């Protein structure tokens, strides 16, 4: 088919409400890391070997971290993945090795390659890993004008490989970690440096590389964000709460829930849902019996739990107008 015939055929398909066929070849599934799944580093002795290997490696270092959002309290890292030329890939368990400052120092002068760096940097900083230079492949994709900038989409569109993303939302605090999860984690850093190189070339062609470098430098130099003021105001459904007394109920329930979640090391949403907090705020129940009738405080909730939440509601009800 000539170019003119192809153009005419594409025009006909669009006129009929159909999309022309994608001329790009189908992405190649990326099923296994090049050197296989690396063993999980969970002892100081094994960590020392990883530190030596990455210190001796060359070039940028691909870095990623897995958290247990939605399962555990806070945003700590439960697995750290790295890859560097000459060192291969490493999977490190921050539960067994909570201080990775030696590793951070070993690779600190190298450029770190991360995807959506601002998501991972806080939990990496908590275990002693702070980059001096970085390249953010997600931000690079945005600056280059890509419509989809998730890691899977970027690897597929730029490099032609398909990453399996089925384990992104699992409970990474699980021990031992299943082999399919470890394979997924290792593959997340398998092509990060290749993606970085391709995006650098694209940004150079667009005349945006220096702009991108300035953005990356700003992220690397940024101090940790200050604690969020009044975090209870971010409760989902808060827009329904209009009166100050109701807001006080949200605050008291949110604070009580956060204390329980931190003590039990579980996600606050698993202790009490945001929707339940908002329902209680709107209803202002006078006692635990009335509270039990609200959505989110059903029959499966024990008496002591109900009394705990009702006590928070009562504290808000008891506030004077000047305290609201």
Largest sheet: 6 strands, mixed
Choose one word for the global shape: elongated
Total count of domains? 2
- The portion of residues forming beta strands comes to 5-15%
CATH architecture of the largest domain: 2-Layer Sandwich
The CATH class designation of the largest domain is: Alpha Beta
Fill in the CATH topology of the largest domain. Answer: Nucleotidyltransferase, domain 5
Tell me the distance between the termini. 74 Å
What topology does this entry show?
Elements: H1 3-15, E1 28-29, E2 40-41, H2 44-56, E3 58-67, E4 77-85, E5 88-92, H3 101-107, E6 111-114, H4 117-126, E7 133-136, H5 137-144, H6 151-159, E8 161-162, H7 179-190, H8 192-206, H9 209-221, H10 244-264, H11 268-271, H12 274-283, H13 288-292, H14 303-318
Parallel strand pairs: 1-8, 2-5, 3-6, 6-7
Antiparallel strand pairs: 3-4, 4-5
Structural commentary:
By secondary structure, the chain is of the alpha/beta class. The chain has helices spanning 3-15, 44-56, 101-107, 117-126, 137-144, 151-159, 179-190, 192-206, 209-221, 244-264, 268-271, 274-283, 288-292, 303-318; strands spanning 28-29, 40-41, 58-67, 77-85, 88-92, 111-114, 133-136, 161-162. The chain is elongated and about 65 Å long. The chain folds into two domains: 24-221, Ribonuclease H-like superfamily/Ribonuclease H (Nucleotidyltransferase, domain 5), CATH 3.30.420; 231-323, DNA polymerase, domain 1, CATH 1.10.150. α10 (244-264) packs antiparallel against α14 (303-318).
């Amino acid at each position: 088919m000539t170019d003119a015939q192809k153009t005419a055929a594409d025009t006909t398909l669009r006129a009929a409400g159909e999309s022309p066929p994608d001329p790009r070849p189908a992405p190649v599934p990326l099923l296994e890391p090049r050197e296989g799944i690396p063993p999980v580093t969970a002892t100081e002795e094994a960590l020392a070997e990883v530190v030596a290997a990455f210190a001796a490696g060359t070039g940028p270092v691909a870095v990623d971290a897995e958290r247990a959002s939605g399962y555990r309290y806070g945003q700590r890292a439960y697995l750290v993945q790295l890859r560097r030329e000459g060192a291969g890939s490493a999977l490190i368990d921050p539960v067994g090795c909570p201080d990775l400052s030696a590793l951070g120092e070993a690779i600190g002068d190298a450029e770190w390659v991360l995807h959506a760096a601002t998501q991972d940097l806080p939990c990496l900083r908590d275990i002693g890993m702070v980059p001096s230079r970085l390249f953010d492949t997600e931000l690079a994709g945005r600056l280059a004008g890509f419509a989809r900038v998730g890691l899977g989409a970027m690897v597929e569109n730029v490099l032609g490989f398909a990453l399996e993303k089925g384990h992104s939302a699992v409970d990474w605090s699980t021990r031992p970690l299943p082999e399919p999860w470890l394979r997924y984690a290792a593959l997340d850093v398998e092509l990060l440096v290749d993606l970085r190189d391709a995006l650098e070339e694209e940004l150079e062609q667009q005349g945006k590389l220096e702009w991108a470098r300035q953005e990356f430098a700003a992220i690397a130099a940024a101090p940790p964000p200050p604690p969020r003021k009044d975090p209870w105001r971010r409760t989902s459904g808060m827009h329904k709460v209009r009166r100050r007394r109701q807001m006080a109920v949200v605050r008291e329930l949110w604070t009580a829930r956060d204390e329980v979640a931190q003590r039990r090391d579980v996600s606050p949403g698993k202790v009490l849902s945001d929707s339940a907090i908002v329902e209680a705020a709107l209803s202002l129940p006078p006692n635990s019996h009335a509270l039990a009738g609200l959505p989110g405080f059903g029959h499966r909730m024990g008496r002591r739990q109900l009394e705990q939440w009702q006590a928070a509601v009562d504290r808000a009800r008891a506030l004077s107008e000047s305290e609201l």
